[in-house]
UniProtKB/TrEMBL annotation:
<dbReference type="GO" id="GO:0070475">
    <property type="term" value="P:rRNA base methylation"/>
</dbReference>
<dbReference type="Pfam" id="PF05958">
    <property type="entry name" value="tRNA_U5-meth_tr"/>
</dbReference>
<comment type="similarity">
    <text>Belongs to the class I-like SAM-binding methyltransferase superfamily. RNA M5U methyltransferase family.</text>
</comment>
<feature type="binding site">
    <location>
        <position position="385"/>
    </location>
    <ligand>
        <name>S-adenosyl-L-methionine</name>
    </ligand>
</feature>
<feature type="binding site">
    <location>
        <position position="316"/>
    </location>
    <ligand>
        <name>S-adenosyl-L-methionine</name>
    </ligand>
</feature>
<feature type="binding site">
    <location>
        <position position="287"/>
    </location>
    <ligand>
        <name>S-adenosyl-L-methionine</name>
    </ligand>
</feature>
<feature type="active site" description="Nucleophile">
    <location>
        <position position="412"/>
    </location>
</feature>
<dbReference type="InterPro" id="IPR029063">
    <property type="entry name" value="SAM-dependent_MTases_sf"/>
</dbReference>
<feature type="domain" description="TRAM">
    <location>
        <begin position="5"/>
        <end position="63"/>
    </location>
</feature>
<keyword id="KW-0489">Methyltransferase</keyword>
<dbReference type="InterPro" id="IPR030390">
    <property type="entry name" value="MeTrfase_TrmA_AS"/>
</dbReference>
<keyword id="KW-0808">Transferase</keyword>
<feature type="active site">
    <location>
        <position position="412"/>
    </location>
</feature>
<keyword id="KW-0949">S-adenosyl-L-methionine</keyword>
<protein>
    <submittedName>
        <fullName>23S rRNA (Uracil(1939)-C(5))-methyltransferase RlmD</fullName>
        <ecNumber>2.1.1.190</ecNumber>
    </submittedName>
</protein>
<feature type="binding site">
    <location>
        <position position="337"/>
    </location>
    <ligand>
        <name>S-adenosyl-L-methionine</name>
    </ligand>
</feature>
<dbReference type="Pfam" id="PF01938">
    <property type="entry name" value="TRAM"/>
</dbReference>
Length: 456
């Protein structure tokens, strides 16, 4: 590559002028962007250029020359390097400001709505140890069964015992499970050969119930002496009510396989959210930050402005949590979701909470919505909470045809949210307000809930 202002392995001093949406510091050398981990706007750093591409490059800090006022002391480089907590070098106040700005930027640049009302982000009182779920890879490191996190952009395991953003009881449980399995000679997965056995340990812990589920993801169904292992795990971790083996034989990055076998207790845990009880099984999506999930749902329900005569659709409903939280305020709730396990949880959750005005259906949102429209389902409020890629255009088209008075859009990706809001805006909906919520402190991710109102 010719005519680039920097070369690989060159050392230079740069000013950090911005933060990328992934939380990397950005410097410009003659207009050429360099992305640098663990740097903040306003800082000056001596950096070593690691990678040079046509349009941008990457560098790492050799010496920090000047420090930002937004930097915290005691930065744990491992948490940044593994991507567990890429923003933990920033004060929480600065993290919140950064995320709020991300949401403002996308509404300005992508949705082309510079005037839209964006409320100050809702952060956490204690933004650490908030995750109710952990999934950690297992590999053999220096002869030992080891748990930790992959170094960013690699599958090299960095052994770790304190994950900083996970419920501390979950961190403890990972160590107990790892050590019991090591004692019984369970072999770690060898990715390069798709050999060995134990690939991941997943732990979920109910925020209110404190019930714990352990999932052992293995390559093969064989797990010798599992009866003894699960008894020992339960002895050391009395909160465990469920131990499930998930078998994933494929050479893939996807963590879970299709087959589950319950090794101990039941195949789910229960927990509470906004005063209702939920059953959560191994393969079902459940918000990982219970405290902020309640904040988010409260906002979504407030924005919906529900009346007792309303019919509500909860699209991408998971185990039914949003729809069931509001079901006693409305006439009927329809929920749809692609994952059959989540829908079977949702149906049980409705019964458990004594709610009979709900209907759940399995399938892709973009296929189910047109069938409901055809059957004459008429939603007053449509709630959507899609995965990062956002809504399919065909889904938006059907939603517009159904003509709900309001659309409440819950999103974990501001870019797809802004894109979809623009499509709704082109079809007669107006964005009334946007509420960013910090569901993932110490990381660059930001959640938002939007109220869209039909105006034409
Ligand atoms: C962000 S989660 C939200 C779940 C739920 N609303 C909650 O708060 O727990 C997105 C959900 O969409 C589901 N999903 C993904 N693609 C889908 C599709 N095309 N149609 C329907 N559901 C889908 C996932 O299985 C997941 O449960």
């Amino acid at each position: 590559m010719t005519n680039l202002p920097v070369t690989k392995n060159e050392t230079l001093t740069v000013d950090i002028i911005d933060l990328s949406h992934e939380g990397l510091g950005v410097a410009k050398v003659d207009g050429y962007p360099l992305f640098i981990e663990n740097t903040l706007p306003g800082e000056q750093a001596e950096v070593l250029v690691l990678k040079v591409g046509k349009k941008f490059g990457f560098a790492k800090v050799v010496t920090l020359v000047t420090e930002s006022k937004d930097r915290v002391s005691d930065v744990n480089e491992t948490l940044i390097r593994t991507g567990i907590a890429p923003l933990h070098h920033m004060t929480y106040e600065a993290q919140l400001a950064f995320k709020e700005q991300q949401v403002k930027n996308v509404f300005q640049r992508i949705a082309k709505m510079p005037e839209v009302k964006i409320h100050p982000i809702l952060g956490m009182e204690n933004p650490l140890a908030y995750r109710n779920k952990a999934q950690v890879p297992v590999r053999k490191v220096e002869g030992q069964l080891s748990t930790g996190f992959f170094r960013k952009n690699s599958h090299d395991l960095v052994p770790l015992e304190n994950y900083y953003i996970q419920d501390e009881k979950i961190d403890e449980a990972i160590i107990v499970v790892r050590d019991v399995l090591e004692k019984y000679g369970v072999k770690a997965y060898i990715e390069a050969e798709n050999n060995g056995n134990l690939r991941h340990i997943i732990v979920r812990r109910g925020h209110y119930s404190k019930q714990m589920m352990i999932v052992l993801v293995t390559r093969t169904p064989k797990l010798f002496n599992y009866e003894k292992m699960v008894q020992e795990i339960h002895q050391q971790l009395p909160e465990v009510v469920s131990i499930v083996q998930n078998i994933n034989p494929d050479a893939t990055n996807v963590i879970l396989g299709k087959t589950n076998k319950t090794l101990f207790g039941q195949n789910y845990i229960t927990d509470e959210l906004l005063g209702k009880e939920y059953r959560i099984s191994a393969q079902s999506f459940y918000q990982v930050n219970s405290v902020q999930a309640e904040t988010l749902y409260r906002k979504a329900i407030e924005f919906a402005g529900l009346r007792s005569s309303d019919t509500v659709i909860d699209a991408y409903c998971g185990i039914g949590t949003i729809g069931l939280s509001l079901a006693d305020k409305v006439k009927h709730v329809y929920g749809l979701e692609i994952n059959p396990d989540a829908i079977s949880d949702a149906k049980i959750n409705a019964k458990m909470n004594g709610l009979s005005n709900v209907t759940f259906e399995i399938g892709k949102a973009e296929y189910i919505m047109p069938t409901w429209l055809e059957k004459g389902v008429q939603a007053d409020v449509l709630i959507v909470d899609p995965p990062r890629k956002g809504l399919a255009e065909s889904f938006i088209k059907t939603a517009v045809e159904m003509a709900p008075k309001k659309v409440i859009y819950v999103s974990c990706n501001p870019a797809s949210l802004a894109r979809d809001c623009q499509l709704f805006a082109e079809s007669g909906y107006e964005v009334r307000q946007v509420q960013p919520v910090d569901m993932f402190p110490q990381t660059p991710h930001v959640e938002a809930v939007v109220e869209l109102v039909k105006v034409k």
